[in-house]
Specification:
Elements (H helix, E strand, L loop, with lengths): L4 E4 L8 H20 L6 H7 L9 H4 L2 H15 L8 H12 L12 H10 L3 E5 L4 H11 L7 E3 L12 H10 L6 E5 L2 H10 L2 E5 L3 H8 L4 E3 L5 H5 L3
Parallel strand pairs: 1-2, 1-4, 2-3, 4-5, 5-6
Helix pairs in contact: 1-2, 1-5, 2-4, 4-5
Organism: Candidatus Ornithomonoglobus merdipullorum
GO molecular function, one term: phosphoglycolate phosphatase activity
Protein name: HAD family hydrolase
Amino acid sequence: MRIKGIIFDKDGTLLKFKEFWIPVARAAAESVLQETGCPKDAADEMLRAAGAYDGINGKLCSGTYADIADAFEETIKKRRPGCTAGNIYDLTRSAFEECVKYGEIIPVCKNIKNVMENLKCRGISLFLVTTDEYEITKKCLDELGITEYFDGIYTDDGEGKTKPDPYFIYRIEEESGLAPEELLMVGDTLTDIEFANNGGIAAVGVAYAGEDKKILGKGAAAIIDDISQLEEILNEI
């Protein structure tokens, strides 16, 4: 049966990850450190704890705000034992929302709008599922110029369970009427592939580096360098 709906991840799949999230995370870490009375020179330590330099295996790339907050809190407690400066999760989430302006939003491929338009012309419904929050997600899609192509945008709103739990796959199936065999997940992390596997739908991994391709290839039906190659492999899935 042909694919009638595609679920995209956002970071690393539609926009370049490092150029956006590393400067945002650094500024957010410095903000949280200031709020908790810790020296700003601990920012690098916080970024390492959040896996900012660990590629697709890091919490910053594949985790949630709760995961990142836990990593930040771990560093803060090392620097300031007994620190009780409010809820670290709330501080972390607010800091990321405020520091999003420091990230550079760059599409993963130059023809990203054409890719989306061609998929829509084929009658394919497009969805986005991300562990990011809505306002940041909307900002990214707007700057990429592709918001209009999505039939549904699902973010970490605190109501649904985040990837790799298949909650949003089931919700998309219910709201769109599409069957599991008609849906395809496209993402750049193992969390995305597990999300698809848990929901019983096919997955395409997005990876350029050889090691990342090996990691994603274990559970994906196909691997592409970037989404500009997606149309080429649709008939093969």
